[in-house]
Each structure stands twice: as C-alpha cells, then as structure tokens.
Amino acid sequence: MLTGNEIRQKFIEFFESKKHKHFESASLIPDDPTLLLTVAGMVPFKPYFLGQKEAPCPRVTTYQKCIRTNDLENVGRTARHHTFFEMLGNFSFGDYFKKEAIAWSWEFITEVLKLDKEKLWISVFESDDEAEKIWMEECNFPKERIVRLGASENWWAAGPTGSCGPSSEIHVDLGVAYGGDENSKLGDEGTDNRFIEIWNLVFTEWNRMEDGSLQPLPKKNIDTGAGLERVAAMVQGKSNNFETDLLFPLVEAAGKLTSTTYGDTPEKDFSLKVITDHARAITFLINDGVIPSNEGRGYVLRRILRRAVRHGRLLGTKDLFMYKMVDEVVELMAIAYPELRENLEHIKKVVKIEEEKFSNTLDQGIQLVTNEIEEAKKRGENKLSGDITFKLYDTYGFPYELTEEICEEMGIEVCKDEFVSKMEEQRAKARAARTVVMEKGQDSFIEEFYDKHGKTEFDGYEIVAEEGKLLHVRNIEDNKYALIFDRTPFYAEAGGQEADHGTIEGNGVFGKVIDVQKQKEIYTHTVIIENGEDNLNEGAMFNLAIDATRRSEIAKNHTATHLLHEALREVLGSHVQQAGSAVSADRLRFDFNHYEGLTEKELEEVERIVNTEIANALPVSIENMTMDEAKAKGATALFGDKYGNSVRVVSVGDFSMELCGGTHIDNISKVGLFKIISEAGVAAGVRRIEAQTGFRAYETVIGTDKLVKKVSKTLKTDVNKLDERSEKLMDEMKDLNKELETLKAKIATFEANSLFENVEEINGVKVLVQDFKDKDANSLREIVDKAKDKLGSCVIALGADNDKAIFAIGVTKDLTGKVKAGDLVREAAKIAGGNGGGRPDFAQAGGKDGAKVKEALEAIKTILVENLK
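-> structure tokens emitted (869 positions)
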C-alpha cells in the first residue's frame, strides 16, 4: 500500500516521465490581487493560462499547498472537508490537450496507483462528445459508467468573460454502504458520499466574449487537480481522509495533548479532527508569512487558530497545546516541505502568542457568561437570550458551545434559535458586503502581437542606448503615445522597481519616455512626443536612450534592498520574507513579514550591518542559471520571481544571494551611505522600512544634524549635552504636572463644596445636577467623587460643554436598585448625539453637540423624578 508521501512523489515522477517540468509549491499568499489565498493548484499559473505571460515551459507538474475556508463549519464533521490540502496537478500551456490528459490520468490511477478499474466512474460535460470518445477508445472505459453533467459540475470559467472550457472528473465508487443501491449511478440523489471525486481535468479551449459567444482560444490549455488527501484515502482503503497516514498521526498527537482517545464519541472525534486539520493550515500559513490579525489573511489564520483552541477546551484541556501541534505537523510534512524546519521556532512562537491571548479571552468570557447568568437569575429569568450569547460570541470572541456548557452547569437555558438567527443575520450582511473581483480573459492584442512579432528583445542589462524598429503605434491622448519596438534598453516596471525614463529620437521625431510596462515579454513604452508626431511610422528606426543618471540611482537603491533583506534576516530571524517593495530614484521601500515593530536597537543594528557591507566594497555579480542550480547555491527566491527555466541570481559578495530581475550596480560601495528614515506597520504582520542611499541619505543626515543644533540652541545647551538637558526638562515637567494635579484636586474640592447650595431633594434623595463650561472628563469625575463623599446617599449628574458634550454621573450604591449611572448617562449622551455607558455607580459618556448639555441634564432630572419613588 502506498503512503501519502509516496503517492505525491510518484505523481511527480510519472509526469516528469511525460516531459513535464516539476515546479515546487508556490506560497499560500498568491501574487494575484483577486485572491486572498492560494485556493487551487492552478493559481500560480493563471498568468500563463490567461496569456498575460509566456509560460517558462509547455508542460508543468506540481504538488501545491492550498487553503479554502468556504466550508469551515464542515471541517471535522465530514470525511473530506479541509482548510489545508494538497493538490496534485499537471498542466499544459498550448501543448498537449484532451487525448493526452485523459490517457495519462487513466494510466496513473490504474497502473501506478492500481485503483480498481471496476470502481471508477467518469463525468464529462453534457455536450463534450470528444472527451467521452477518448475515454471509451483510448482507455477502453465502459460507456455505462460515463455520465454527462451540466455546467454546474463540468464547466470551468475564469469569470463571466474570458477563458473557459469543459471538464471531466474521475470518481471512485465506495459502494452501496455509502448511499444508493445496486442500480445507482454517479450524479444520482443521495450518493454524494458514495461517489468520491479524486481528479478534475479541465480543458480550457474557449474565450467567452462580452455578448456571451464562445471564440476558440489561440492556444488550448490543460489544467488538472487531484486532491492528495482524497487520493490517499482511496489508495489506502479509507473512507475518511483523517484516517490516512497523511493525517492520522496528527489525530493521535492531538489526542495525547488533550488526553482524548480517537473513537470514544463522535463529538470527541469531531474536535480531534478540527485540531488536526487546523494545525496544518496554521503551520503553513505562518510559514508563508501570515500573522494573526482582524482582517484579510490574518483574520483567516486567527479564526482557524481560535477554532482549534476552542475544540481543545471542549475536550477538557486548559493548557496551551496548539503550538505543540506545530512540531507534529513539521515532522510529518517536512519531507515534502523542508523549509518548515527552518521556520519551526518562529511558527511556534506566533501560535503560542495567539493561543495565550485567546486563552485569556476564554477566561474573561467565562466570567462574563457567569455574570450574565447571575443577572438573568436576579430578574427571575431561566434563559439567556440570543442577544447576549451572540454579543459574547461576536464582541468578545467567546464560543457559543462554551456558553451553552456553562449555562447547563448553572441550570439555565440558552436560546439557541435566537443565537442562530443572529448568526444568519451577520452572514447575510457579510454576503451583501462581499465583492468578488472577476477576471477578464486574455489580452487578444498582446496575444496576436506576440504570435506575429515574438517578444521584445531587452538589452538594458548591458547597454543604456540602442537603435530599435517601431512595430506598433497607438495614440493614448493628445501627444501621448504607446509605442512598441523590436528591442529596447528600457527596463519595464517590475518587481517593485520603477520603469526607466529617457528619450526616443529619429525620423524627425523626439519624445520623452515616461513609463514602460511589460506583458508577456512585450515592452510598451509610454512616450510624450514633443515634435514630429506625423513621422511616427511603423517600420521606422529610432534611437532609444535611457536616463543613465536616474537608472544609476534606482540601481543603488535596488541593490541596497538586497543588503537590507539579508540584514533583517540576521537581526530578526530567518522567518523574514519580502512581502513587497518599491524602488525609485529617491528612496527604497521594503515590506517584510514580522509580528512586531522593530526596536530602536534592532533598527540601529540593521543599519550598521548594511553600512558595514557597503564599506567593505563588496562586488555585485549576476549569473543566469537554472532554478535547481540557484537553490543548490542557497539563493533566496523573491516575491513574484518564483518560476522560470532560467533565473537571474544577484550576489553581493558572500553576504547576499537572491533571485532578481532588476538592475544593479557592480559594487556595493557605490551606494555610499544607507539611512533608514522610517519603520512602521502597514498591515497585520507586515512591517515597512523606507530608506535612502547616496547623496539623498547624506542630505537626510545633514537635515537631522541641523535640527539637533537648532533644538540645542533653543534649550540653551551644548549639542553633546542635549540628552542630559532633555532628561532634566522631563523631570521638571513631571514635578510641574504633579503640582498641577494637586491644584486640580483642590479646585475640585472647592467647586464641590461650593455646589452644595445647588443640591435638591427628589422624593427624599439628595440630587445634584450641574452644567459647566470647558471642563474635562477627569475634572468632572473628581467633582463626582468629592460630592459623593460629602453628601453620602445621593445622585450626581454633571455635564460640560467643550463644543462637544461630556457627562459624568455618580449614584451611591444604596440607590443603584432604583437608578443606574450607566442608564442615565446613556440617555444624556443620546440627546447630545453620542453614546456611552458604564457601571451602575459611575458612568461617563460624550456627545457631538455641547449645546445640548443643559437639555440632557434636564432630561435626567425627569428620569430621576419618575424613578426615585
């Protein structure tokens, strides 16, 4: 019986024997703005399928790590739902098509995996006679086990327009024990758990136009996907993916960590499966640079991690355990993903930090639930409303199941229907707010241009000026044109590096190049024509010259980012990965994955390392080699530069080695000076450093020096004693602030005493209602406290007009059964256009309209008259 690791390896070896090139799994963070995460094996190859880039080779095979959360609630409940899974795939970019794809899939599952032919079923698109014929004639597959299905099952499309085509799926029949009877066939009602899809073959051959019509694609493609977990289950004779050798060791590990035995009860098995699945997803997401947060990918990670921790609690463990599951995942998966071992400690640290945070949330939630139950009992109620359970879940992140469990222990019911209703309302709002970015199909002009002329020859690595033939002219607006030449020295915007600027001249034409973009190796120059527009003739020759000074400044900054990247890895750890960059002539920006802001000491160390290497005058060398050779040398693969037959490796001495297609200087000493000008967070788990080099860095240092001298002059001290002087001033300010607070307290006491003549009695209760002008919240609170101390049993309601409204209300504890400060302040705030609340004995709030303070206080008086009886 084949193991999961063997199936994965045999799949790659099989397609390598069919002349496919094996590409390693891409990151779970796709280089695609329309996708949050990598959801399928074809995602890294979308630019090739859509004709936006030329594929590096016509045949590719991969095993790709994927994340999907659209059916999160089913994970653990069913035999085949997962958040993390691996997809085996083979792809053809304009090379082989249906016949080979079908024949090879049949060969692999029957001859390599040796699945029982009699248990296999095939689905094809309802009108795909060709696919059905290939299955019957090439594979001798019986027609009675081929089922034709509609577009919902066997048609793939990139969106409402663009690339699309029929598909064919391979299914395994588990038998009548899983649904239907002896006469059931694939697609029959009630057989979803019986016929298990293991491989989907997509035949992308059409381009759907805006009018809905289908046009043949210039190049037909093959995109297949086989879920490794499902395939392993079928090969190993398991009806449940969690019982394969890919997952069951993790189930057992989760059992040990939670003192639970798999097979005890369905509920416990469910929790163990959730922990198992989520441990894999958590480990791989963090390994690829995702950090827990409240938005985007970080929210997906946080939600999965918290769901796993919750299930640990349901199994009775209060200890931190999820970070220990990371060890088990890495041990199991490192055969296929060796990079996990390098990041093990980082992954565990991130998981442990988040697990500790949520454990505290759970503890706080338990107290909140207990308080709500006690309040309900005081009101004589024996149920906890859906509003409360949903608030606990939505606001505090407290799991409903734990609320239900605590209520059961304390003898109170939970209104589950109300909670479910509230959840559905939230989902409906989320669905309504969700926007889906759909793709357009291939750029037909670029495709046709490429077929006619081939790619633009880029010579900009070697030269800064050359002659090129004009192949295409398109007017954009006024005197702005898009021009394509047969060759160019202009670097197109890519990898965060700005495009070259420069000039074109010839045939009576002079123009300035202000941008260059590249699609499928076609370089399109945006040019402002200053004279000779009428002579922009296709076929004419032009001199193309880049702005060499600007190119040099960009090159300095780009090479400096390589040093910065390596320095960050040295100071912070090997988990640091580039998450984006921008390189221009005046500065560089570098985004990277890290879970916390850098300390001043860390920034100083990073800056010191980079400048040390600059001072060492390290040479910069550039080599072209295969990806395998680059990996063997230890090159770091950068954002967006993962694939290609030949890769460009940029080495800065022995210090840094990265895959990069940008322009660089030949010796790092030419950078001159490196200066970090800012460090900040730009997204959850992503930090950004901006820096300058050369003369601009010098100007920044000089500017700082001038500022220091100016401040020293203002403080009347020597520059060398500025820190001493500033510390002394801070101490003096602290002393003055203490004196100020003492004076404020005395004033508050005086004001409170002077206000006693305004005390009223309402039904025998002392009440003080007073408005002020320009009084802050702390001062109001001081007066409330002093007045309560002086008056004893009382209600104090104060408000201040500071353009905006501020309220502070105090109720002595003997009166909170009649009126509550939180309720009173809420009503006052509403009148002033705000909101707020607080404890029964004290509450503060604010409002937008300070002019409404008096009206709000009068309303409080009315409420007191009604309630103080």
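Confidence is low (pLDDT under 50) at residues 433-442, 639-643.
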